[in-house]
Design brief:
This protein is mainly α. It is about 55% helix and about 10% strand. Strands 1-2 form a two-stranded antiparallel sheet. Helix 1 runs antiparallel to helix 2 and helix 3 crosses helix 4.
Amino acid sequence: MKKEEIPQDLGALGKITGEVCYVVDESGKYTTVLSNGWEVKSSALDVAWKDVEQRIAAAAEKVKNREASPILFFMELRVMDIGIVAAYTGFWKWQVKKHLKYPVFEKLSDAKLTRYAALFEVSLEELKTMKVHEG
């Protein structure tokens, strides 16, 4: 792509930062140029975030129906999977899977719940009630 062909569509982060793109300059050498965004990329990101929002809503509904624990909700909210949660909390993956069951979650000690709360950056009460105050 040539320097003058770089898309400058204002994307989601266009007002905050630019994206580095590699281009061919006038002398035929590769160089970097900042782009404000690209409409195609912004559209793809919008679709991905809508999927994440749907997964969060589905997780919240499962918790409300006691089909899953609030850990599932926060995993979806923070875009994490079982492997990531296990790695950061120090629990084994099988333990995290077990903690995703509502009856098991209700019996977890505050010490274990505190590890999840710290990972998700919420209070113990917010973890238990799913009432999150984002900043």
